[in-house]
Every structure is written in structure tokens, then in C-alpha cells.
Amino acid sequence: MEIRINKEFCKGCGYCIEYCPQKVYELSDELNGKGYRVPCVARPDDCVDCGLCELYCPEFAIVLKKTA
Amino acid sequence: MKTQEDMAGLMHPLAAKYLRPERLPHKACPGCGIGHVVHCTLNVCEELDLTPDNTVWVQGVGCSSRISYTLWKGDNIDAHHGRIFTVATGMKMSRPDLNFICFTGDGDCASIGGNHFLHACRRNLDVTALMFNNSIYGMTGGQVAPTSPVGAKTQTTPYGNLEDPMDTCKVAVAAGASYVARWRSTDFKQLTKSIKKGIQTKGLSFIEVLVPCPTQFGRYVLGITDAKEIVQWYNDNAVTMKKAEKMSPDELQGKFLLGEFAHNEDRTGIVERYWDAVNKIQEGRK
Amino acid sequence: MSKAIKRKDFVQGDEAIAEGAIAAGCRYFAGYPITPASEISECLARRLPEVGGVAMQMEDELASIHSIGGASVAGMKALTVSSGPGISLKLEGLGWGIKNELPYVVVDVQRAGPSNGVATRVAQGDLYTVKYGSAGGNNSIIALSPKSVQEAFDLTIECFNLAETFRTPVFLLADETVGHTRELLEIPEDSEIELVERKKPDVPPEEFHMYPFDTPEAINYPFPNIGDGYGICVSPYTHTSRGYATEGMKDQDRMVQRIVRKVTAHQDMLTRCEEELMDDAEYAIIAYGCEARPSLEAAKMARAAGIKAGFMRPIFIWPFPDEPIFKIASKVKKILVPELNRDGQFSREVTRAAKGQAEVYHLGSGGVETHLPEEIFEEFKRVIK
């Protein structure tokens, strides 16, 4: 799964980090334009395409694309 | 500063298809569950071919409405506080061919809108209502709501809420709504299924969604500001109907019951009945 | 030239209002039972299904006005009716109609107040309520007042036309006397009745502004409805010209200027009065609604007694007929204003419009019955001394 994070939409709620069953996400040191600390994809190879992060994100900030 | 063009590649396909790009990111607080419900709703729009041309989003006043207003690419009709069902009545009776999804809140629906809520259910108005329940008045700063738990210390109940909360799903069932359900905003699968079922069921579909509210309910009532911990609180305090069957009334005290409480596919509503009657009257005059 | 008549009947004013609405193309009605307006609801409940329209008895007054707002947004010519206490309840909903420039008609069949008062008896206490009652001011309210059953029919049609022309709620300020009096009503053939229909935009959605803040005085402005593909945004909050919520000072000012100026810029279209015996009048009696006919009678009694009295009746009550009243005040020495309230609402406005050119006297009453011509004449003789 290709994971893209729309960092400017992120409000730093932490749901993606908490609820990914594979712990793919981590909190980064990067701040977006509004000052929120945004997540990063720390372990992309551990992703099992469950799509939960996309649903847990209330901001439509996580965009998943199924890779071939 | 990223431009709309830069972000185009990052726009979620559902948002790109159904939402106005200049209104994103929406106004919800970090961790607010309203975004979850919007996402589930858009999934249903995809499945049922609900488009900006055939579907109207209706709002009231409060977080439920301020956040969802002007998100939808189609028509957005934001009523006065509590009057969402009355405006929807005027619209649906006049344009029964259009679909209406109503975004209301616990204060908007159960408090100031209580009377209209009752009668919309009684008339079985053919719209789908999503009531965001955060058990507090969010937009105005954290005052007590008719859905707030007993003992809740809110801005207007500093010594603790003395009133019992209303079970809006029970009220909807008693008043005659065809489809009634309650889920957490994080019950994505069930919520999406319910919204779909609600839209497909004729008559009033009432879906109560428990949404985490870190800014008001979490902060004032629970003393928690971490959104994940509030989600956990809902997980600890919500029970499915199946589980509830094995629990005593004491154990169920203060718990949110999840599930489908009514699904009546036979009960007709005012829209169908009225236009049938008009057709008969006009036939009779020929 | 007299019109071809479809039907003649002996009906009460309330029924004339209902028939006027039907003739005007009203196809959505929502109301709540309230004396003395209930007969309008009852007539429409019978008649609207016959013409393929919607007649709803809603759960309360607020539901009625909010649902006609919804119906208007959905493309219908819509109507609600009530009396004083019900109008009080409707004021919030009226705000939604005013700010979102929704065309619809509200009928106030005034009765004795304050509060519930005497449900079945007349008064004229709602002059300011209909114009200034809705919170926040800055409104576009137009109000017409009938004196007879025929006029109740005719002016109802005119109210609908004005609503569409100005994209605003319009009041028919009636009263229990006109509402419950039975007189001859002549309903013209459909072809004789001129109607204003809603305009649709002739530009694509991305170019269209739902609220024309750039041209605040524009009338006959398009009004796309839900399902027209324009993605209309309607809300109770201050909005931009596209309907998006905003809190900026400039936006707020542009919005209220639009709402106010679209009416104030067209005073000429919104002024109409009836005058009798005014040509050489030295004194005038000015009244509206149910007080008009006894006032005219009183003026005639004065003439019979050798006093040069004249009579004037505004048909458009809001915007207030400042210019015609100033003209009269510049000509006559004194003006008597009979009205059915004790706080001098109408006479206060006449005094203001007269700008000191003539003395204005208020003949008040709590209502229940209209003034008799003799009562008005007695007071008239007293004030002109």
C-alpha cells in the first residue's frame, strides 16, 4: 500500500499512530503550517493494507493507494 | 505554504469527488469524531450513487453543523438551531425526488429541536438524520446537554448535572422512526452499513453517533484531553445489544447501548402518504 | 377596464386570502391552528391538494415558518399564517428568510394583545413586530394591509409577486375584522392575474453569487433552488456572497447593506396609498386596515358638517409611506390617526413622517372592536378645535 500523508490537513490527533495494528506510524518532529506535530510512515513494509488508518483519520489526511 | 495544486495529489479521492477543496481541512477540533462520520457518509454516497446533484446536506447549529456546512459540493442548507427537521420537511415534501442527509447534534436535536425531532419521527419523514452525540454543547463552550451523564461537571453544571440523560434512540423508536441505530464514530464498518441502510429505508432514519470531543466533553467532564483516551472511554462505556442482554440494570447504568433498535421497512411516512392522497384527490376530481 | 371574472362568492377575508394564495401560485402551506387565522389553514387544507400543492399542519408555529423556508429553497411559492402570539414565535424563522433572501409570504391576522389577549377579537398591535421583531434588525420586510375581503385576495397575490421580485419574506398585515367579515369576492380568470415567477441564473454555478453583495440594489435577482445544480449554501450565519460563513466586518456590512438597500432603493415601487376628499382638505384622518373604512366614514361626516376633512390610507405599510404623509402634513393643519392600540405605533410613524409640518393626534383603543365612525368623528371635532 502506498501511504501518503497530507500534512497540512493533519491536526495531530494521534489516531493513526495509536490504532494502526502494525504500528506503521510514528510521531515525527516535523510541524505543519498550523503548528501540529505530524506523523510519519516509520515502517512502511509492515503495512498489511487494512485501511484502518485512513478511516481513523478524521481529516482525510491519509491517502492510501493499493500498489500492484 | 502549499497551494491547492501541490495538495491536489494529496487530496483523498472521496474528498476530491464530494467535498469543496477550499473548505478543507474542515473546522473540527483535533480528534473530533465528526470527520469519521463524514468519511463513512461519503463511502455510502459512493456505494449508493448519491451525488451533489441528487442529494442535499442539511444542517442545524452546533459543531455537527458548522463543520459539515459548505463541505458538500452540492446544496448545503443550514437551518436555525433545532429546526433542521422542519426545514427538511419543507424541502422533502416539495422535492420528494431528492435525498436529504441531516447532520444534527445532541443539543440541536434533543434539546431545542426536541419537538421537531418527535414529529419528524412520528411523520416518518423520509430523510436520514445523523445525530452527533458528544453529550455536551460543544460549539458554545461546554454547557450541559440533555444527553450529558448525571454528575457531569460542565460549564452550566459546576456542581454536577442533576438531570438524567435522554436516550434519543428510544425516543426515536417510540415516536415511530423507521430505522434507528447507535454507533461510535469509530465503528466504521457498522456505521457505514447503518447509514446505507438508513438511506435505503423509507421513512425517518435516525442514527446516533457517539463522537469523541476532546475540547469540551473530554476536558470538562472526563478530565481527559487526549483524544485516544476519550475513544477508550467510549469503548469502556458502550455495550452491544447482545452483551447488554446478559447485564443487570445496575451494570447497564450509564452505558451507551450500541446497535440497531428499529428497522421497519413497511411503515410509510408523510411524504409517500401525502402525495398518494393528492393523486387520489386529483383523480377523483377528473 | 374590469377583469373577466372566474368566480363570485360571499366569503370571509380569511378565505379570500387562501384563494389569493392559490391564485398567486402558492403550492406549499404550513401553519398551526390559531384564532383568527385558522380558517385560512382550513381552506388551504382543502384547496391545495386539489391543485397539487402541499398543505401541512405543523407541530408548532416555528415549525411552520421554518418549513416554508425549506419549501421556498426547494422552489415553491410558500405561505404561513398566524396571529400576534404566533408571529412572535415565528420571528426567528423570519430572520432565516430575510438573511438568505428567501421569497415567501406570512399573513398576520392581528388580534387583541398583548400575549394571548382576546383570541377572537381585533386589534392592531403588530405594526412594529412584523417589521422590527426579528432579531438583529437590518431587514427587508415589506408589508401590505387590506381593508376589505376583495383587497385581502388582491393584496395576497401582490405579496407573492413582491416576494419573488425582491427575494424577501413579505407580510400581509391583516386583522380579525377583515379576516372574519364576509363580503363579495370576485376571483378573476387566471389569464387576468399577473404573476411574477422565480428567475433562474443564466451563468454557470462557478460564476453565480447566491447573494449579490456587489449589486445591493438588484431586484428580480435569480434564485436557484436545491437540485438545480448550483450547490446553494443557505445558513443563519453571516455569509459571503456565495453563502460561506464569515465573521469579517466588511462581509457583515456588505451583507446587511444588500438586505436593506434592495428595498430602500425601490421606495417608488413600494408606496401606494388611497386618498379621498384630500384635494382641498384642511385636516386629515389617516388609518390602515380595519380602521380605514370607519375613518373614511368619519371624514365624510365631517364634510357633511362643513369641515374640510380628508382621508388617506396606506396600502403598503412597510416601507412606511413617508413621502405621501409628508405631502399631506405640508398641506393640512392637523392629522388624526385612529388605531387599535394604546402605544401609538402608527401615529408615531405618521408623526415622524410629518416632520412637524402638521400636528398629529393618536386616537387609541385596546381593540376588541374597531372604532365607530361616530367615535372617530367626535375625536376629530375635539382635536381640530
Give me the secondary-structure topology:
The complex is a heterotrimer of chains A (68), B (286) and C (385).
Chain A: E1 2-5, H1 15-19, E2 25-31, E3 37-41, H2 52-56, E4 62-65
Antiparallel strand pairs in A: 1-4, 2-3
Chain B: H1 4-8, H2 13-18, H3 34-48, E1 55-59, H4 63-68, E2 76-78, H5 84-94, E3 99-105, H6 106-112, H7 114-123, E4 128-133, H8 168-175, E5 179-184, H9 188-200, E6 205-210, H10 214-222, H11 227-237, E7 238-240, H12 241-245, H13 249-252, E8 256-263, H14 270-285
Chain C: E1 5-12, H1 13-24, E2 28-31, H2 38-50, E3 54-57, H3 61-73, E4 78-82, H4 84-99, E5 104-110, H5 127-132, E6 142-144, H6 149-166, E7 169-175, H7 176-180, E8 182-188, E9 233-234, H8 249-264, E10 273-276, E11 283-286, H9 292-304, E12 309-314, E13 316-318, H10 322-331, E14 334-338, H11 345-354, E15 359-363, H12 373-383
Parallel strand pairs in C: 2-3, 2-4, 4-5, 5-7, 6-7, 11-12, 11-14, 14-15
Antiparallel strand pairs in C: 1-8, 6-13, 10-12
Helix pairs in contact in C: 1-2, 1-6, 3-4, 9-12, 10-11
How would you describe this structure to a colleague?
The complex is a heterotrimer of chains A (about 70), B (about 290) and C (about 375). Chain A is an alpha+beta fold and about 70 residues long. Chain A contains 2 helices and 4 strands. A two-stranded antiparallel ribbon of chain A has the order 1-4. Chain A is globular, with a radius of gyration of 11 Å. Chain A starts with a strand and ends with a strand. The model of chain A has no long low-confidence stretch (mean pLDDT about 95). Chain B is of the alpha/beta class and about 290 residues long. Chain B has a single domain, classed as 3-Layer(aba) Sandwich (Rossmann fold). In chain B, α9 links the parallel β5 and β6. In chain B, α6 packs across α7. The N terminus of chain B is likely disordered. With about 375 residues, chain C is of the alpha/beta class. In chain C, the strands form 3 sheets. Chain C has a 7-stranded mixed sheet, sandwiched between helices. Chain C has a 5-stranded mixed sheet with strand order 10-12-11-14-15, sandwiched between helices. In chain C, α9 crosses α12. Chains B and C meet through β2, α5, α7 and α14 of B and α3, α4 and β9 of C.
